[in-house]
Amino acid sequence: MAKRLFILLAAFVMLNAATAAIVGGSSKADVADPEVVNAANFVVSSANTNACSGLCAGLQKEGELKLVKVLSASTQVVAGLNVHLELLMADAAGKQTVVTSTVWSRPWLASKNDAANPATQITALTFKPYDGTLE
């Protein structure tokens, strides 16, 4: 009886380990999820106002950028939430750019209104012209 109980318990533990997400690991996110949409809009707004800690300094654009599509997204629970994004943006002239970015959100800091330690910030941002293909 003890042997059967042990085998059953071992099978349960192995099944749980196989299906559990790794703590701190990234998980694929739905591009329509409100957290993803908010993060994408934050990146567009930051790029349009050059408020991305110098990360978007070399971004060539004519007029304002608009979000065309969220290509992919994943989230990672840290001290807050990292939202990793791949975005397709277009400027006023129609030139499209693929932007890869990470937005770090800590909503509990929003009420403090501390410019040195904002509740939401871009921690990574790269960009490349969209040539009609996505890698």
TrEMBL record:
It comes from the Eukaryota. GO terms for molecular function: cysteine-type endopeptidase inhibitor activity. InterPro entries: Cystatin-like, Cystatin_dom, Cystatin_sf. Residues 1-20 form the signal peptide. The keyword Signal applies. Residues 21-120 form the Cystatin domain. Keywords: Protease inhibitor, Signal, Thiol protease inhibitor. This is Cystatin domain-containing protein.
